[in-house]
Each structure stands twice: as structure tokens, then as C-alpha cells.
Amino acid sequence: MDECLEVWTAVGRRLMAGPCVRSGFCCKSAPCPFGEWNQAMTQCQHLEGDRPGRYSCGIHDQIIGHPGSELVPAFGGGCCSPLNTDRRIVQLELTGSIDSAAWPR
Predict the structure, then answer these.
(1) Burial class for 72, CB neighbours closer than 10 Å (0-12, 13-18, 19+)
(2) In this predicted model, what pLDDT tens digit does every residue of 56-80 receive, in sequence order?
(3) Do residues 60 and 44 touch, judged by C-beta distance below 8 A?
(4) Residues pairing with 24 in the sheet
(5) 3-state secondary structure string, 14-81?
(6) Model pTM?
(7) Can you give the residue ranges of every domain in the chain?
(8) Which residue, 24, 20, 21, 18, is CA-closest to 6?
């Protein structure tokens, strides 16, 4: 997908990551190693926000302080998933276009 970059982890695993558009896809798919699954809501219990484009990780600032946090969780990794249709919806709402060059940075 557009703007997705190939990233290699320390153990040689390939990840795709791009700018996070706050779609919530990652946290609704599975919890990261720092997250906790909320079965009733079918998402990570730390996911905050009320809709795609407004979601955020409630413990992001705590995670960033941990060694290796630049790779796991892969903030923006879900945004590069071909299964994430919310990314396009958020992009249209933000810019009125699917052109990734018009995205706010």
C-alpha cells in the first residue's frame, strides 16, 4: 500500500509499517505484547476513541519508554494491512482524496 515501508526486526522478521492514521485496525485485530484483549468489545482494552481516525493507544506513552518499542508494537503496521479498509476511509475524511501525498504528517 502507499507510504508503507519495509522494516526488519532485530531477529530478521519483515514488517510493513506506515504512518498511523488512527484507524484502530491493529488494536481491533489483536493485542500487542503490552495490550490486553477485551472479549466483550472484541478489541484491545487500551484502545481509546470513538471511530476510525480518532482511535489511539491509551498506553502509548508507557510503551514508548520500553527497549525495542520502536518495532513492537509496530505503530502504523496495521495501517499497511491490505485488510484495513478503514485506512482509506480515514484518508478520504482527512483530505477528500485517496492521494497519500496530501496526508497530514
Answers:
(1) middle
(2) 999 989 988 888 777 677 676 677 7
(3) no
(4) none
(5) EEEECCCCCCCHHHHHCCCCCCCEECCCCEECCEECCCCCCCEECCHHHHHCCCCCCCCCCCCCHHHC
(6) 0.68
(7) 5-99
(8) 18
